[in-house]
Amino acid sequence: MGEVYEKLQRCYRSVRQKTGFCPQAALVLGSGLGGFASMLRTEAVMDYREIEGFPVSTVAGHKGRFVFGYAGEVPVVCMQGRVHYYEGYAMQDVVLPIRLMKLMGARRLLLTNAAGGIRDGMQPGDLMAITGQIASFVPSPLIGPNVEELGERFPDMSGIYDKGLLELVCAAAKECGIALKKGVYLQMTGPQYESPQEIAMCRILGADAVGMSTACEAIAARHMGMEVAGISCISNLAAGISPVPLSHDEVKRAADQAAEKFGRLVYRVISGMGE
Ligand code: HPA
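A: This is the predicted complex of the input protein with hypoxanthine.
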C-alpha cells in the first residue's frame, strides 16, 4: 500500500470512530457559503482537527469541518472549509478530503467556489455552472505513484463535469428562478490575484472564470469515478477587467451578498443528487 493511500486510510478510520454516516453526495462549500451547512438536517459534525493527518486550512473565514446531514432525503457530507494549494500543502493533501468523502460512500460531488469573472457580461453576484476546466497551471494531484486502490494511471478527463449533473444544476436554477451562466473555470495557484496580462491570456485560452481551487479537486474525484458538478459564484471582475484593484475583502463581501441565492441553488441541486 502506498503512502498516500495509507494516510487516507488513517483519516478514514478516524472518521469511522466518530460516525458511521454514509453519504450519497459530497459538497465542498466555497467562500461565502460557509453558512449553508445550517440548511441541512444535521446528524453529526467533525472538526478537521479531530482527523489524524488531515490538512487544516489557514485562511481566515474558512471554518474547517465536515458536516454530515440530509438535504431532503439525500444523505450529504459537506466540507465547510477546504485547503488550497497556495497554503503550502502538497497537491495530494489538497485533494485528500475529496478522496475521503468518496471512501465514506459519496459517488457524486458538487464543488463550489468564488471566482473572478473573465468573460464579457459577467457581473459580481452571477452564478456560473462549470462546464469544463483548465488545470494546466497547477500540478496534477495525480502526480506520483498511482493510487491503484482509487483509480487508473491515465484517467480520461473529457467528461470531467458530468452532463447529467449539469442538467440537474440548470433545472434547479430554473425551478429556483435564479439566472445561471455556464462556462469554463481556470485554476491558478494564487495566492496573488492574477495580473491583467495573465487574465488576457486566460481569456484567449477560453476561460470564463478564474479561481484558486476546484479544478484539482475535480481531477481527483474523476480519477475515482465520481460524478462531478461545479458552480462558481462570480465575486469580482478579474484583474484588468475591473477598474478597481482586487482585494480579498471585496471578494468575501460579494460572495456573502450572493450567499442566499447561492445557498438556495446548492440546496436544490444537492437534494437531487441522491442515488
Ligand atoms: N482570481 C482568482 N481567484 C479568485 C478571484 C480572482 O479574481 N476571485 C475569487 N477567487
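The longest strand covers residues 227-237. Strands lie at 25-29, 41-47, 65-71, 74-80, 108-117, 127-134, 181-187, 209-211, 227-237.
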